[in-house]
Every structure is written in structure tokens, then in C-alpha cells.
Amino acid sequence: MWWVLQSVIVSIIVITLLHYGWYYLKKTYSTPKTKDIAKIHAEKYDHILSEILEAKTKSSPEIQIDPEEMENDLAMFLEQTLSDPARENHNQIPAL
After folding, report:
1. Could you give the CA distance from residue 18 to residue 25 in angstroms, rounded to a whole number?
2. Sign of the torsion angle spanned by Cα atoms 25, 28, 30, 36
3. Three-class DSSP category at 82
4. b/e string for 42-79 if b means 16 or more Cβ within 10 A?
5. Residue 36 has what DSSP assignment?
6. Maximum CA pair distance of the chain?
7. pLDDT tens per residue, range 30-86
8. H or E stretch including 40?
9. Alpha-carbon torsion 80, 84, 88, 94, what sign?
10. Which end of the chain has fewer CB within 10 Å, C or N?
């Protein structure tokens, strides 16, 4: 029974030594990787903002529409719509 307890204790000590040894080697001989997430998102935001500003400066000028021409077009549309004989049938309620 004594040998079981002794082997368990020795195994725990060996595992602990290997674990901390590996941790020491990893920390001493490797360079930590750091990722600046705030900077990455700020750069993406600046890129998107610059694209939007470029698109605004390259956009075509607004088209000017004459109000009288719009009134004439509306009047012609209303005349055509109101004089359409097929439209008269749509106003009737079908008998049930």
C-alpha cells in the first residue's frame, strides 16, 4: 500500500515540475503575440469614412427639374387616367 501512495506523490511532483518547466521555457524563449483590437477597428472605420467622403465628392450634381414641367406631366397623367374607360369599371362594386 505504501508503494501506491509513494508513486502517486512522485507522479504529481514530476508532472508539476514538467508543467512549470515548460511554462518557464515558453515564457523565456518566445515573444508574446499582442493584438491591438482598438487600433484595427479604428483603421477600418477611417478607411470606410474615407471611401464615403470620396464617393460624396465624386457624385454627380443634382438634376434640376422645372416645376412647370412637373405640373404639365401631372396634368397629362391625370387626364389620361381619368379619361380611361377601363377605369370606370373598377369603381363599381360587384354583386354578391
Report:
1. 10
2. positive
3. helix
4. eeeeeeeeeeeeeeeeeeeeeeeeeeeeeeeeeeeeee
5. -
6. 110
7. 988 888 888 999 999 999 999 988 877 776 667 778 889 999 999 999 998 888 666
8. helix 37-58
9. negative
10. C
Give the separation between CA 76 and CA 11, rounded to whole angstroms.
Answer: 97
In the block, which residue shows the cell 503575440?
A: 33
As given in the structure block, the three cell numbers for residue 70 are 412637373
Ramachandran region of residue 51, left (φ > 0), alpha (ψ -120 to 50) or beta?
alpha
**To which residue does cell 491591438 refer?**
36
Distance CA 90, CA 77 (A): 18
Segment 12-32, tens digit of pLDDT: 999 999 999 999 999 999 988
